[in-house]
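User: Please predict the structure of the protein below. I'd like the answer in structure-token form so I can feed it into my own downstream comparison script.

Assistant: Understood. Taking the following sequence of 221 residues as input:
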Amino acid sequence: MDPMYLLTDTWLKNAVLPAILVIVFIETGLLFPILPGDSLLFTGGLLSAGDNAPVSIWVLLPAVMITAFAGDQCAYWIGRAIGPALFHKEDTRFFKKHYVTETHAFFEKHGPKTIILARFVPIVRTFMPVLAGVSKMDYRKFVIFDIVGAILWGGGITVLGYFLGGVEFIKNHVEAIFLLIVFVSILPGIVTVAKRLLNRGSSAQAAPETELAASANEPTH
């Protein structure tokens, strides 16, 4: 789904601003992740920098940030609405109630950073606010960091497209660049989890050996 084609070679070329805003809202607020979020914003910024621009950057920037914020708010309240039903749902092979309580604990501890970084990861940015709602993350905290995320993602990528849209490498690899940035940002967390898993594995392996050694030292009768 090439956003440049959508915004310049289809009927959407006559409604660039509404098209961008509708797609952003659907991706962030209506649980439909297979849309060109990052590249769409980048392309919108690129188009706003050209001659006879279909939309002004001064209109596009605030409109995108407000829409991105509104989309996440919608997804959060969808999560709050379906959350109680999940607690009354019987445990199945793929769903267990403790998943929700663990998610709640995760958001209370790591939520702010997660809400911001999730903006830059396709698919994740669609479902993260829903999970925040399901886990009943503190709403005031969610709003504050969601505003930051909407500004950094919606405004940041659009501005990047406006100033650097002519750079071929960046234009062709915008999503990969942001995924790399997010990966580097969460790398310390990945290392910490990996160490815990390794330590847990070592402890589990050492336990049988300790029991075996204790058994060997027991006196025989």
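That's the full token string. The chain is about 75% helix and 0% strand.
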